[in-house]
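ok so heres the complex, two chains, lmk if somethin looks off
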Amino acid sequence: MHEMPQKITIQVNGEPHTLFSGSSVNDLLADIGSDGKTVATLINNRIVRPEHRRNCRLENGDHVEILIFAGGG
Amino acid sequence: MDSLQLGSYTFSSRLILGTGKFSSTTVMLDAVKASGSQLVTVALRRFNREQPGDDLFSPLASIPGITLMPNTSGASTAAEAVQAARIARELSGSPFIKVEIHPNPQHLMPDPIETYEASKILAKEGFMVMPYIPADPVLAKRLEEAGCASVMPLGSAIGSGQGLATAEMLDIIIRESTIPVIVDAGIRSPSEAGLAMEMGCAAVLVNSAVAVSGNPPLMAEAFAEAVGAGRKAFRAGIMEKSGIAAATSPLTSFLGSGT
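and the predicted structre for the whole thing:
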């Protein structure tokens, strides 16, 4: 019997975002169109370093922040 | 070689440029290049796929010799600033952090208590802490003792263009500090930047005055020249003021000698 892939809903930069269950931070970055090279990532206020993004699985209800450097004084 | 020393970092430019408020990234990059600045500030912001041009990391990294100094703008408490600093360091690869905590958007005055707390923590974590502070000599000394790399007192309110309204206090801070004093905020024109340097500031941080001018790259160049001139004047030693005239030409007049 074939099971439908489960989906999870997370918050990305304050907006709801749906992903397949088991998605990693890298999967999320690809999904939103970032190559991940110039962003910082946080899950529930914890920094996830680039080398850990591939193995870091997102859970339903996670709050993810994806941050860049923009203009500022 | 007269250079700005911040910890183990050496900069030949004493003009720090902010990257906010520019009309476009291209204009900002041209201004950074024209300024000769080697330390430029950036702010953390949420990624938005609709506005890929907001991301300044790659464009700035393409300019040789640039070190990024992220700020903690948006933080209104020490805890938020510490978190922002840690995130920024992950991204910048630079230990420089401009601690900027202003809880009230009406006047943007830095919160001295939260700024002190955040700076103390970040200095212990090995950051090059550059706190944006009110021009308060006592606070400046406390931050120096807490291990900050510099103090950055305001000349006047952020973006106000009111110049060196705090000159008297800046003078005391400069006299008392053993770490570089950098005037941050309020500078409107190159002459004010030059004056800050003549007073003995180690550097100035300018953003609005360049970004909102009619020709930002040209204004950036003007600031660089003024900062350089002010620094040279400070090093040369500026003459004392006098209440009376002192002739620069000989007054023993030969014109009247025949009468």
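quick notes: The CA atoms of residues 6 and 16 of chain A lie 16 Å apart. thats all i got rn
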